Amino acid sequence: MATPNRRYIPRAQVEEPFKINQKITAREIRLVGENVEQGIYSIEQARRMAQEQNLDLVEISPTATPPVCRVIDYSKFKYEQKKRTREMKAKATKVVLKEIRFGPNTDDHDFAFKLKHAQEFLKEGAKIKAYVHFVGRSIVFKERGEILLLKFAQALEELAKVEQLPKLEGKRMFLYLAPKVAPSVAKPKPVAPAAKEGAPAPKEAQPKEVQE
Question: What is the DSSP track for 45-98?
């Protein structure tokens, strides 16, 4: 059985962010850069100058009058642009949210264990979502859950600030904490040079006479 003819649909091409070489439609452009004599040229002259250097003519400011172009290696230029974008994303602060779960009858040992983990998370710069999960009829102890979360926030007040006070949503009561800005470290005071042998001690260091 013969297969039906299928119409070939080409994949959509990724549109380049800049016009280059033959895609530049302006008749006249302003050429800038270190490897050319800057000035206003016809598009044919500018393309020829780029070809002589085995480089590309790239339109970097299409809205200018006339449009501004550079003679560069476009592949290398795109690579550096992508690299710069990746570096900027890597430097961007990523907020990490850590969850800590309690029950309405959490004992002191479990509370201390989870408190220690929360301290470590906050020191690493993460936010905390602490919540009490009420199962079945334990919802009647919601006041106990609120007291537990407030106690948790108070125990972390040196490291964290409260973003949202305990709030009941369904069968869970949530508390949100964010790390405080690290306090600036005081610079150590300069140490005075040691006194030479035989030199009189400073007035402050000389012992005072004890009056009877």
Answer: HHHHHHHHTT-EEEEEETTSSSPEEEEE-HHHHHHHHHHHHHHHHHHSPPPPEE
Cβ–Cβ < 8 Å for 69, 60? yes
Residue 19's contacts (CB-CB under 8 Å, 6 or more residues apart) are 25, 58, 59, 62
Tell me: the pLDDT tens digits for 58-117?
Answer: 998 899 999 999 999 988 988 888 888 888 877 666 778 999 999 888 899 999 999 999
Cβ(131)–Cβ(99) under 8 Å? Answer: yes
Q: Which run of H or of E encompasses 183? A: none
If 0-12 CB within 10 Å is exposed, 13-18 middle and 19+ buried, where does residue 115 land?
Answer: middle
Tally the C-alpha atoms within 13 A of residue 181's C-alpha that lie toward its C-beta.
3
